[in-house]
């Protein structure tokens, strides 16, 4: 079978791709061998900076199909009719590990969905858990540093992790989920996804409701035991990538039911008055008994990327990407992510990353962004500025058209520590676990916790006790079995 002739990146035919141009058969090599120079130069630049978080990931394309009418909540066109389909791209990931780390590490999993709608890209960038460790983005760099490597030893550090968690009681809800069986899902197909944050929807009448997005796996929840997760980390560190790719390649297309929790301002105010929980606090969930799940549609993944780097590594998603009929919320963590995600992609991929095929909208678009590195869609001869008439602006009557969001209180730095309930929901989650999963939780926590100082252990045990006395007692017993005296 004949091969396509090799050329340089500029299309110039290459006479010999196996032998450098040299002065005589023994060399030295001549600088004029541009093909050699170009190959080495490109090779030196083949890696873009990996993501600070979510570095190890997998991706696939698919479709979202509307199965239920939610037009009373939103004017977003992708939900306009039952049966309507929208092309999607999904990127799954671990959070704390480097790009070469194992898929089976105990870690939350990123679950980011891009919907290529006729009104622009909507990115639902969430996790496989409905809550998170912190509620304010100012703590995010500190938290992630504790999940990375010790600056002296360059090793993962249980001391760093539990020192932070034990001084951050709002983390207990997510810590409980992380060290439960769901902390090591069996691949990406067998886990749920969540938008996690509170978002909002706006209907054609300009009425706003607040929502939480849920993606429920139709493959069933399946988790790995701690022992199997460790074994696979050594024998098949790409277990989740392999499972997802092979399933799609074999026509076994994974699906998730997309659902919503919906609440009005008045309902959330009444709920907060009754429970004391801030509905925009990312460390909390909305109980289903209070806010039932409403079916919306089905997400199916049915096409693998052709090139991992171009379509998965360079995929640049951001929760700031919403379409008309959608909005944000006062969630402090969400507000930080609205800035941080896009900014990270500007640094990592480049100022024109939205021109790459995986990131480009599928609908017509027009803006005045010009120039910068790799500006392949630079706008041609079109005007590169927007003028404002002396009489004032002239809105197009399009776009998000959100109603005004009422603000409350003076600008300041508010510390709710000691005033907010960080234990009840963590205790509720613990009490939901079957007995064997509680035992697994105790063992999973005791492993790394047994490696830290007595001071940190006692501080962390105090949080377990406040969530549920049996929670603290179980971890104490597991620590004693490992030789730590925690009386």
From TrEMBL:
PROSITE patterns linked: CATALASE_1, CATALASE_2, CATALASE_3
EC number in record: 1.11.1.6
One Pfam short name: Catalase
Binding site for heme: 341
Swiss-Prot/TrEMBL catalytic activity: 2 H2O2 = O2 + 2 H2O
UniProt cofactor(s): heme
Gene Ontology biological-process entries: hydrogen peroxide catabolic process; response to hydrogen peroxide
Active site: 54, 127
Keywords: Heme, Hydrogen peroxide, Iron, Metal-binding, Oxidoreductase, Peroxidase
Assembly information from the UniProt record: Homodimer.
Protein name stated in the entry: Catalase
Organism of derivation: Massilia eburnea
């Amino acid at each position: 079978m004949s091969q396509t002739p090799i050329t340089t990146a500029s299309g110039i035919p290459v006479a010999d791709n196996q032998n450098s141009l040299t002065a005589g058969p023994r060399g030295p090599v001549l600088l004029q061998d541009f093909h050699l120079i170009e190959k080495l130069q490109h090779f030196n630049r083949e890696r873009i900076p990996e993501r600070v978080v979510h570095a190890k990931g997998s991706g696939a394309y698919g479709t979202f199909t509307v199965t239920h009418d939610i037009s009373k909540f939103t004017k977003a066109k992708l939900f306009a009719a039952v049966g309507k389909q929208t092309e999607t791209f999904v990127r799954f990931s671990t959070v704390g590990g480097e790009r070469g780390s194992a898929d089976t590490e105990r870690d939350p999993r990123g679950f980011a969905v891009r919907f290529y709608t006729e009104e622009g890209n909507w990115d639902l960038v969430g996790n496989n858990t409905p809550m998170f460790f912190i509620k304010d983005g100012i703590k995010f760099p500190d938290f992630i540093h504790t999940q990375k490597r010790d600056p002296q030893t360059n090793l993962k550090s249980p001391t760093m992790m539990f020192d932070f968690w034990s001084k951050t009681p709002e983390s207990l809800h997510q810590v409980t989920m992380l060290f439960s069986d769901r902390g090591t899902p069996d691949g990406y197909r067998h886990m749920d996804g969540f938008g996690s944050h509170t978002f909002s929807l706006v209907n054609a009448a300009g009425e706003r409701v607040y929502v939480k997005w849920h993606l429920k796996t139709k493959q069933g929840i399946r988790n790995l035991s701690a022992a199997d997760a460790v074994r696979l980390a050594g024998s098949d560190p790409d277990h989740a990538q392999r499972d997802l790719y092979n399933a799609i390649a074999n026509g076994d297309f994974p699906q998730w039911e997309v659902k919503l929790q919906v609440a009005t301002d008045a309902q959330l105010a009444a709920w907060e008055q009754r429970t004391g929980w801030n509905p925009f606090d990312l460390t909390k969930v909305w109980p289903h008994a209070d806010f039932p799940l409403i079916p919306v549609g089905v997400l199916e993944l049915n096409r693998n990327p052709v090139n991992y780097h171009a379509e998965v590594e360079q995929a640049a998603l951001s929760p700031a990407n919403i379409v008309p009929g959608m909005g944000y919320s006062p969630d402090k963590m969400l507000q930080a992510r609205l800035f941080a995600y896009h900014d990270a992609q500007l640094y990592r991929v480049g100022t024109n990353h939205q021109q790459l095929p995986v990131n480009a909208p599928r609908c017509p678009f027009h803006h005045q962004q010009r120039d910068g590195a790799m500006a392949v869609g630079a706008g041609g001869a079109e005007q590169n500025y927007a003028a404002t008439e002396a009489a004032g602006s002239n809105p197009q009557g399009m776009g998000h058209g959100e109603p005004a969001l009422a603000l409350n209180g003076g600008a300041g730095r508010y510390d709710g520590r000691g005033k907010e309930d960080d234990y009840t929901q963590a205790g509720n989650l613990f009490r939901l676990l079957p007995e064997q999963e509680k035992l697994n939780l105790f063992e999973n926590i005791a492993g790394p916790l047994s490696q830290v100082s007595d001071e940190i252990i006692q501080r962390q045990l105090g949080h377990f006790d406040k969530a549920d006395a049996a929670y603290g007692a179980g971890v104490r017993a597991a620590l004693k079995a490992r030789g730590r005296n925690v009386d």
